[in-house]
């Protein structure tokens, strides 16, 4: 029952959990293993260091995850050979139900407790950015509500939650591709996909506001500058207008951030982002200075742009 029987050193329990649907068999097998006094064998690793809870998270087997956590709650924080906890695997593979359950049973480190927290450092950064990448904006909000400073963390790709949001413009109204009639009925959804788009829009807007509020709350210019700046640099390229708007409203000085050698005002022109350009133009008291104090490279961008620069 507990022998590693495959090339990847998997036990029968690992295989059964990995099917994602053999719930009755898994329950009986676990009971039999516990009854013979081999409870510790429930969490035998495969060759890549993954135990049965990792398998449950990877395939979205919430039923098996509950049974396993009941036997050993501490296994929720165990990492496999790739540094992935069950939490991160559930998020990475888009298993929302399992992810939400694991969040309720994966505690943070207690004061003075040694080990790695699932909600700080790279692990915390990975968790929140993976949730956003999977489109689980409501779960990301729940995570941020519980652990606000997770938005300051960088994931394994050196990206923050706000920057990853900037990579996903589709949930925002300016980034979706509804077409003319879709936009007409957007304000009163009667079709499921239109409804889903509106829900995602509301969630992403709330998510951006929550992140910006937390970042500003640090009252540290360097942190604010780096997190908001890297996000708007990405947002300009991916046309996430609403995110840029919130960043500017939250911290107006961010218009002076260097976006690939240009200020935001100029970068908007370079990337043909007329709405961003107009936003900065209208909100900035320095528009004359910014529009006139430019070098030759920026001037060439202006000359080749597809829209006119407003005159005072």
From TrEMBL:
<keyword id="KW-0040">ANK repeat</keyword>
<dbReference type="InterPro" id="IPR002110">
    <property type="entry name" value="Ankyrin_rpt"/>
</dbReference>
<dbReference type="Pfam" id="PF12796">
    <property type="entry name" value="Ank_2"/>
</dbReference>
<feature type="repeat" description="ANK">
    <location>
        <begin position="82"/>
        <end position="114"/>
    </location>
</feature>
<feature type="repeat" description="ANK">
    <location>
        <begin position="48"/>
        <end position="80"/>
    </location>
</feature>
<protein>
    <submittedName>
        <fullName>Uncharacterized protein</fullName>
    </submittedName>
</protein>
<dbReference type="InterPro" id="IPR036770">
    <property type="entry name" value="Ankyrin_rpt-contain_sf"/>
</dbReference>
């Amino acid at each position: 029952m507990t022998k590693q029987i495959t090339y990847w050193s998997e036990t029968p329990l690992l295989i059964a959990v990995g099917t994602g649907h053999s719930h009755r068999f898994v329950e009986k097998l676990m009971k039999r293993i516990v009854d013979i006094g081999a409870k510790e064998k429930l969490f035998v690793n495969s060759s890549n260091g993954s135990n049965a809870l990792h398998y449950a998270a990877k395939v979205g087997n919430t039923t098996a995850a509950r049974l396993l956590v009941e036997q050993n709650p501490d296994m929720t924080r165990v990492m496999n050979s790739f540094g992935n906890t069950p939490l991160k695997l559930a998020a990475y593979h888009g298993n929302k139900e399992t992810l939400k359950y694991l969040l309720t049973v994966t505690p943070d480190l207690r004061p003075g407790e040694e080990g790695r927290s699932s909600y700080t450092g790279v692990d915390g950064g990975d968790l929140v950015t993976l949730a956003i990448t999977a489109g689980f904006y409501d779960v990301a909000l729940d995570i941020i509500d519980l652990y606000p400073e997770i938005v300051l963390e960088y994931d394994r790709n050196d990206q923050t939650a706000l920057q990853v949001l900037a990579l996903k413009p589709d949930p925002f109204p300016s980034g979706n591709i509804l077409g003319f009639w879709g936009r007409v009925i957007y304000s009163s959804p009667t079709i499921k996909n239109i409804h889903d788009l509106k829900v995602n829009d509301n969630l992403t807007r709330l998510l951006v506001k929550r992140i910006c509020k937390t970042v500003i709350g640090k009252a540290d210019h360097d942190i604010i500058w780096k997190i908001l700046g890297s996000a708007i640099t990405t947002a300009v390229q991916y046309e996430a207008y609403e995110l840029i708007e919130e960043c500017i409203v939250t911290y107006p000085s961010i218009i002076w951030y260097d976006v690939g050698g240009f200020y935001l005002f100029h970068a908007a022109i370079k990337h043909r982002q007329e709405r961003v350009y107009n936003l900065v133009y209208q909100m900035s008291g320095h528009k004359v200075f910014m529009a006139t104090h430019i070098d030759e490279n920026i001037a060439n961008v202006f000359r080749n742009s597809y829209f006119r620069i407003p005159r005072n």
